[in-house]
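Q: What residues go here?
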C-alpha cells in the first residue's frame, strides 16, 4: 500500500477567503499533510515561524494587506512557498522575480 504523497509534511495555508482555505485544507489533508491555516496577516506572520512547516501556500493579499513581509520571512527561513491567488500573476512576478 502506498503512503500518501504528503504524509509527514506540515503545510500552512494563508488565505482569507474561507471557502478557498477549506478547499485547500481538504486537498492537502487528503494527500496526508497536517494543515495549519491563517486568515489574518498577524496570524500568518506568527505561523510562518512554526518550526515544523514543510511549505506554505499563500495569497498575494489578505484582504487589502500585502503578504510580502510574510514571504520575505519565509524566504529568509528557507521555507518553500507558492502563491495561490486570483490576482494578476504579473503582480507575483514583481514581488518575486
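A:
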Amino acid at each position: 500500500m502506498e503512503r500518501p504523497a504528503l504524509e509527514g509534511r506540515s503545510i500552512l495555508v494563508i488565505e482569507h477567503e474561507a471557502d478557498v482555505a477549506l478547499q485547500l485544507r481538504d486537498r492537502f489533508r487528503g494527500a496526508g499533510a497536517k494543515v495549519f491555516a491563517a486568515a489574518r496577516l498577524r496570524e500568518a506572520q506568527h505561523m510562518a515561524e512554526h518550526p515544523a512547516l514543510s511549505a506554505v501556500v499563500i495569497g498575494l493579499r489578505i484582504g487589502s494587506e500585502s503578504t510580502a513581509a510574510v514571504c520575505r520571512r519565509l524566504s529568509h527561513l528557507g521555507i518553500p512557498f507558492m502563491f495561490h491567488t486570483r490576482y494578476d500573476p504579473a503582480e507575483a512576478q514583481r514581488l518575486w522575480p
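A: Context that may help when evaluating the design: Residues 10 and 53 are 5 Å apart (CA to CA). The chain has a mean pLDDT of 91.
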